[in-house]
Design a protein that fits this description.
By secondary structure, the chain is of the alpha+beta class. It has four helices and nine strands. The strands form three sheets. The protein has a four-stranded antiparallel β-sheet. A three-stranded antiparallel β-sheet has the order 5-6-9. Strands 7-8 form a two-stranded antiparallel sheet. The protein starts with 17 loop residues before the first helix and ends with a helix. This is Phosphodiesterase. InterPro entries: DUF5998 (IPR046040). Pfam families: DUF5998.
Length: about 200
C-alpha cells in the first residue's frame, strides 16, 4: 500500500480557498502535492465552485487511490488528477518504489459542450421534495473524448435480409465521476450537485 504520510500535514501555504483545501485534505491523498498542482493551474483567477472526488482501486496485490479535483473559475474548467503506480521499466526512479503522477487540464468554458447529472433515487414512491436521491453520476464533455455506440441498421421491410451497414450515436464522455452518499458522504454528494449546477449555469451564459 502506498505511504500517504503527507496526508497528516495541514496545507497552509496554498492560496486556494479554505473550503477547497479542506476537501483536498479530507480526501487524504497526498494533499500537499494535489493543492500545489491545483493552485498552479488556477493561477490568479478566483474560484467560483469546486468538487474533490477520491476513488480507491483494489487488485490482488495492492490498493491504489486516485483523486480528481474539479475547479470552476469565471472562464475555465480545471481538472487535476493524481494517482500512484509502479515506475515504468525505463524510468530513472525505479529504485524509489511507487511514484505519484499528477496532471492538470484546463478547458475554456466556451469549449464545454455539456454537463449531465444522473441521479439514483431509492424508493421513488416516498421521494421527499428537494432530496434528489442518494447517488449522482456527473458527466462532463468538451470534445476531447467521444464514445461511439454502433448497431446494425435496419429497414422498414421485415423480410429484408440486405446489409444496411451500421447506425449509431457519438456521445461526448470526457470525464465521468460517481458520488454516493453511502460511500462518499452526504457532504460530498451535496457538493457534487452544487458544482454541477454552477458549471451548467456557467456554460449557459
Amino acid at each position: 500500500m502506498t505511504d500517504m504520510s503527507s496526508s497528516s500535514k495541514q496545507i497552509t501555504a496554498s492560496a486556494l480557498p479554505t473550503g477547497l483545501l479542506a476537501d483536498i485534505e479530507q480526501a487524504g491523498y497526498f494533499p500537499l502535492l494535489v493543492a500545489d498542482v491545483v493552485a498552479a493551474a488556477v493561477g490568479s483567477e478566483s474560484i467560483t465552485s469546486h468538487l474533490v472526488h477520491a476513488e480507491t482501486t483494489i487488485d490482488a496485490e495492492t490498493v491504489r487511490r486516485h483523486v480528481t479535483v474539479f475547479v470552476l473559475t469565471d472562464s475555465r474548467l480545471i481538472l487535476a488528477h493524481a494517482d500512484d503506480h509502479a515506475p515504468t521499466p525505463d524510468s530513472p526512479v525505479q529504485h524509489l518504489g511507487m511514484v505519484a503522477t499528477a496532471t492538470s487540464e484546463t478547458v475554456p468554458l466556451s469549449c464545454v459542450r455539456g454537463v449531465m447529472l444522473g441521479r439514483v433515487v431509492p424508493d421513488p414512491e416516498r421521494y421527499v421534495e428537494g432530496s434528489f436521491g442518494r447517488e449522482v453520476t456527473l458527466t462532463i464533455s468538451w470534445g476531447a473524448v467521444s464514445r461511439v455506440d454502433l448497431l446494425p441498421a435496419n429497414c422498414a421491410d421485415p423480410n429484408c435480409d440486405a446489409d444496411h451497414g451500421y447506425e449509431g450515436t457519438i456521445t461526448g464522455d470526457d470525464v465521468t465521476v460517481r458520488v454516493s452518499a453511502d460511500a462518499d458522504g452526504d457532504d460530498n454528494l451535496q457538493q457534487a450537485q452544487v458544482f454541477s449546477t454552477a458549471l451548467s449555469a456557467a456554460i449557459g451564459r
